[in-house]
Amino acid sequence: MVCLGTIANYLTRNSLAVMAPQLKSSLHFTTQQYSYVVAAFQLAYTVMQPVCGLIIDTLGLRLSFALFAVAWSITGGLHAVAGGWPSLAALRGVLGLTQASVIPAGVKAVAEWFPGKERSVAIGYFNVGTSLGAMMAPPVVVWLALHYDWQTAFAVTGGLGVFWAAAWWLFYRAPADHPAIGPAERDYILAGRPAVKTGRRVPAGEIVRRRGFWGIAIARFLAEPAWQTFSFWVPLYLATERHMDLKGIALFAWLPFLAADFGSILGGYLSPLLMHWCGLSLVASRVAGVCIGATIMIAPGCVGLAATPSIAIALLCLGGFAHQMISGLLNTLTIDVFAEREVATANGLTGMASWTGGLLFSLLVGALAERVGYGPLFGCLGVFDLLGAGILIALIRPQWRLS
Q1: What's the pTM?
Q2: I need a surface site. Which of 133, 141, 392, 396 has the fewest CB within 10 A?
Q3: Cα 366 to Cα 371: distance, rounded to the nearest angstrom
Q4: What is the per-residue pLDDT across 345-375, written as a single tens digit (0 to 9) for each?
């Protein structure tokens, strides 16, 4: 259910990037003005993530996630009435406010339903929704735009969340309330709760004073520019520097997200394998997986050196694979080091740091892409994750003994 909701979320979100080359012409805006539209979403998403986490922890996962999904669906459909980049930016801002709920909600669901050793696998499977939604966007959106128009593409992709919200409200229950769960399964889940569990909700101010929080937050701050670049800028990169038309983008722009699907799933299984093969603790296995992903992220940093579009897309695929390994393991770390009643708030706060990095880098791309090209900007992505992995090791180390 969480994976399907994440697919609907990211399909709505990535519709803009797919149609960006066409919208630049239809609505008459520049690359820099497009970066303002992207930044409106990112800024709202950044600010709202800890708020969404707090709402989810307060109102409960079932009600809050359904309400957020209805809100983002309505907003996504209203993109069809945009008349220029300012109105498009305003709608993207509202979309960011509502869609900021998806990752804190997914992490909360995993915290409720899975014991510690299974959580990275569960995060990997729900995190597949981010790349599946982004992967589906190019063919689906281009088909709708070519057969109908760009307004229809926004209306259709925006409206899917309403159907998902209805299904979520009907079927989701926490383990304690689920009518189909037996005592053995309930006891198995409860026995896997981390030792850091506490009965009280810790204030946000106390959360941000922990070393573990900053290790995860800084690593996510440095990792997120890659995913924001893949989500919002790759179609424009393929159109401007690789000279692909809309059909060419539809054929190839989804491939990095397909690779990201495998990264999400294999990254989830990597942690328990490292625990089994290398004797690492729960937290240390997550950190080791992040370091492996950070090393692979050197590949998309070399996109500017690619001689052909196919090589460039292959390097972007490696980047999608590696980033989703890193993303899934960092989200899992939030569950490992924070108590269940505070995990959505903590994830929202680290997500705020994450999206601050993505926002700043997108503004940098918008300001510099037409002056220096995309190559040097992609090069930065190869450095950021290595730096983030080093900082994560330094700050999370006292908690490596968590089993």
Answers
A1: 0.73
A2: 396
A3: 10
A4: 888 889 889 989 988 898 888 888 888 888 8
